[in-house]
Amino acid sequence: AAGTVIAVDGPAAAGKTTTCLALANTFGLRYLESGRTYRIIAFEALRREIPVDDTREITGLCDELLMESRTESLLTAERYASDKLRETPVNVAVSAVAKIAEVRQRVTGLIRLWAKTQAQCVVEGRDIGTAVFPAARVKFYLTASPEVRAMRRVRQERADSYENVLADVIRRDEADMNRAASPLVAAEDAIRIDTTRLTIDQVTSRMASACRNQG
Ligand code: C5P
Q1: Which residue's CA is minimally distant from atom 5 of ligand 1?
Q2: How far away, in angstroms, is 8 Cα from ligand 1 center?
Q3: What residue segments make up the domains of the chain, in order of their start?
Q4: Which portions of the chain are predicted below pLDDT 50?
Q5: What is the structure's pLDDT at 69?
Q6: Which atom of ligand 1 is nearest to the CA of 33?
Q7: Is 35 a pocket residue for ligand 1 (Cβ < 6 Å)?
Q8: Quick one: 59 exposed, middle or buried, by C-beta within 10 A (0-12, 13-18, 19+)?
Q9: Predicted ipTM beyond 0.95
Q10: Residue whose C-alpha is closest to residue 126's, from 195, 84, 174, 92
Q11: For binding ATP, which residues are annotated in this chain's numbering (predicted)?
Q12: Rounded distance from Cα 97 to ligand 1 centre (Å)
């Protein structure tokens, strides 16, 4: 099944979600946003007042959530409103949760199972091309300057100030790149696209033609 995966990784707010959705539309692929699952775990930890750096407790929470969500996978659970998962406390907690190897192992397992049931899919995250699907058919690594990424996020969400969003983006990148368990890094065979001076349409069409060429 891994042969049918398009993997898209990169730092926060690099344009992964928007371009992945466009690709999914163009090629009729299923789309998975893996960050959502890490966010759900962080959200539940906050709600239940479990310290996010307590490996044992968070791993236990993870197992509990996996058991509870038999009918609705944690990957796609719609009962979690996206705006709730994007609030500041979750943004802060999610990198701590995502650092935990036991959590990553479980989420990785979920993603692989899901992908097996899909004919073709595009999966976005931080470790998709490196750890989850090292044999993905096509891999992309999207980047942009932190300032441009923060600016785009502010325009898109209109919820927080530029300074706060920039600080969050930088802090999360630091945490994601420097953790021991599957840190954020471009896979050697990933197609790197710096989107700083590109429009979404330009990025999407580059990605689409790379997919056609490597299909
Ligand atoms: O993609 P998004 O910004 O929603 O991801 C939220 C957080 O989830 C990231 O900052 C990262 O800590 C974690 N994550 C991860 N591995 C993935 C996807 C997300 O560690 N594959």
Answers
A1: 35
A2: 12
A3: 2-214
A4: 1-2
A5: 75
A6: 1
A7: yes
A8: middle
A9: yes
A10: 174
A11: 10-18
A12: 10
CA of 7 to the centre of ligand 1 (A): 14
Give the length of the chain. 215
> Given ligand 1 and candidates 5, 19, 33, 34, which is best to mutate, with the most ligand atoms within 8 Å of its CB?
34
Rounded-to-integer distance, Cα 122 and Cα 137, Å: 10
Q: Choose the CATH number for 2-214 among 3.20.20.140, 3.40.630.10, 3.40.50.300, 1.10.357.10.
A: 3.40.50.300
In this prediction the pTM is 0.95
Q: Are 120 and 187 in contact (CB under 8 A)?
A: no
pLDDT at 74: 81
Whole-angstrom CA distances from 96 to 1, 103, 165, 213 are 30, 11, 18, 38
Closest C-alpha to 58, from 50, 66, 70, 68:
50
